[in-house]
């Protein structure tokens, strides 16, 4: 199953706000050539909250087409309505996606039992592997390790993306869920420490612009070479920080365009382009990382 350095891929859009599939193909090639281990299509960084249902499905399918079996593709399928998350998962049945990434229901703030029942319903409605996604900073709900452990008993709930930045949870989840349950960091700033603590990889925003560097770092970390991995991470820390100077994916989409990987950095409202006074910091972070 998927592990290592995984990109939370941006969804490129042209100046008119339409999805730019030419640039999407270019991004997929960039990651294959850079050694990225897998792609998450239409997650939070891929603007899942502003694309239409038809666009959501098409971007995932086009990403699969462009990847052509050379790199696993994980589909973002999360929603705050359980029936909607089930519908998205069913739509990708037989498509070739490696797994679905399903964020905890946002805004409606379910209880731990509500979270369990939400994911249980999804798991029972599809055979596709499911990766839970915990990001309390965006959703206002935190799925607790004990709830994750209950869900890990379902055969097709295979892992967790944890964006809490609480590295201590790696050991807790390993103890409760077993070594085969996949653990991915969703926080770039603590991602290396997460992997060194026993995590299986990262699902990364920084990976959009420093793909080769992230791939090498995570490979070193998983091999136990903490010293060299930390040396690479030191060059990436400015990116880890400045790519979140405004809400993701505002800075990273600007950075991907700055690198020439996409033709335009358009975002859909309510997201707006990166504030001008923040651009020098992001540009310098790209330089320090060796991305430009």
UniProtKB/TrEMBL annotation:
Classify the main location. Answer: cytoplasm
Any Gene Ontology CC annotation = cytosol
Q: Which reaction does it catalyse?
A: L-aspartate 4-semialdehyde + pyruvate = (2S,4S)-4-hydroxy-2,3,4,5-tetrahydrodipicolinate + H2O + H(+)
Which residues are listed under the site Part of a proton relay during catalysis?
44, 107
Q: Where does pyruvate bind?
A: 45, 203
Report the subcellular localization.
Answer: Cytoplasm
EC number per UniProt: 4.3.3.7
* Positions of the catalytic residues: 133 (proton donor/acceptor), 161 (schiff-base intermediate with substrate)
Q: Which domain of life is it from?
A: Bacteria
Pathway annotation from the record:
Amino-acid biosynthesis; L-lysine biosynthesis via DAP pathway; (S)-tetrahydrodipicolinate from L-aspartate: step 3/4
Report the InterPro entries cross-referenced here: Aldolase_TIM (IPR013785), DapA (IPR005263), DapA-like (IPR002220), Schiff_base-form_aldolases_AS (IPR020625), Schiff_base-form_aldolases_CS (IPR020624)
Q: Does the keyword Amino-acid biosynthesis apply?
A: yes
In the record, biological process GO terms are: diaminopimelate biosynthetic process; lysine biosynthetic process via diaminopimelate
Q: Which UniProt keywords apply?
A: Amino-acid biosynthesis, Cytoplasm, Diaminopimelate biosynthesis, Lyase, Lysine biosynthesis, Schiff base
Q: Does the keyword Iron-sulfur apply?
A: no
Q: Name one Pfam family in it.
A: DHDPS
* Catalytic EC class: lyase
Subunit architecture: Homotetramer; dimer of dimers.
According to its UniProt record, which protein family does this protein belong to?
Belongs to the DapA family.
Quote the HAMAP family the UniProt record gives.
Answer: DapA
The record's annotation in PANTHER family points to: 4-HYDROXY-2-OXOGLUTARATE ALDOLASE, MITOCHONDRIAL, DIHYDRODIPICOLINATE SYNTHASE
What function is annotated for this protein? Catalyzes the condensation of (S)-aspartate-beta-semialdehyde [(S)-ASA] and pyruvate to 4-hydroxy-tetrahydrodipicolinate (HTPA).
Quote the protein name from its UniProt record. 4-hydroxy-tetrahydrodipicolinate synthase
Instruction: Supply the source organism for this entry.
Output: Salinivibrio kushneri
């Amino acid at each position: 199953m998927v592990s290592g350095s995984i990109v939370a891929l941006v969804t490129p859009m042209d100046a008119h706000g339409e999805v730019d599939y030419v640039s999407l193909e270019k991004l997929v090639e960039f990651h294959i050539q850079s050694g990225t281990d897998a792609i998450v299509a239409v997650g939070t960084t891929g603007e899942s909250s502003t694309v239409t249902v038809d666009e959501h499905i098409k971007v995932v399918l086009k990403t699969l087409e462009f990847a052509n079996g050379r790199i696993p593709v994980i589909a973002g399928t999360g929603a705050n309505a359980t029936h909607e998350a089930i519908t998205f998962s069913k739509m990708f049945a037989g498509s070739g996606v490696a797994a679905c990434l399903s964020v905890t229901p946002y805004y409606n703030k379910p209880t731990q039992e509500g979270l369990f029942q939400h994911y249980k319903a999804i798991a029972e409605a599809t055979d596709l592997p499911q990766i839970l996604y915990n990001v309390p900073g965006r959703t206002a709900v935190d799925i607790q390790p004990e709830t994750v452990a209950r869900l890990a008993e379902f055969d097709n709930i295979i892992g967790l993306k944890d964006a809490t930045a609480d590295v201590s949870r790696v050991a807790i989840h390993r103890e409760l869920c077993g070594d085969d349950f996949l653990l991915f960091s969703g926080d770039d700033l603590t991602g290396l420490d997460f992997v060194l603590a026993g995590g299986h990889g990262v699902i990364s925003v920084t990976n959009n612009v420093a793909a080769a560097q992230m791939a090498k770092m995570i490979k070193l970390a998983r091999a136990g070479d903490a010293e060299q991995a930390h040396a690479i991470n030191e060059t990436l820390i400015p990116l880890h920080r400045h790519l979140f100077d405004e809400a993701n994916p505002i800075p990273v989409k600007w950075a991907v365009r700055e690198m020439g990987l996409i033709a335009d950095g358009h975002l859909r409202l309510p997201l707006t382009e990166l504030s001008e006074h923040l651009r020098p910091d992001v540009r310098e972070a790209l330089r320090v990382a060796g991305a430009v």
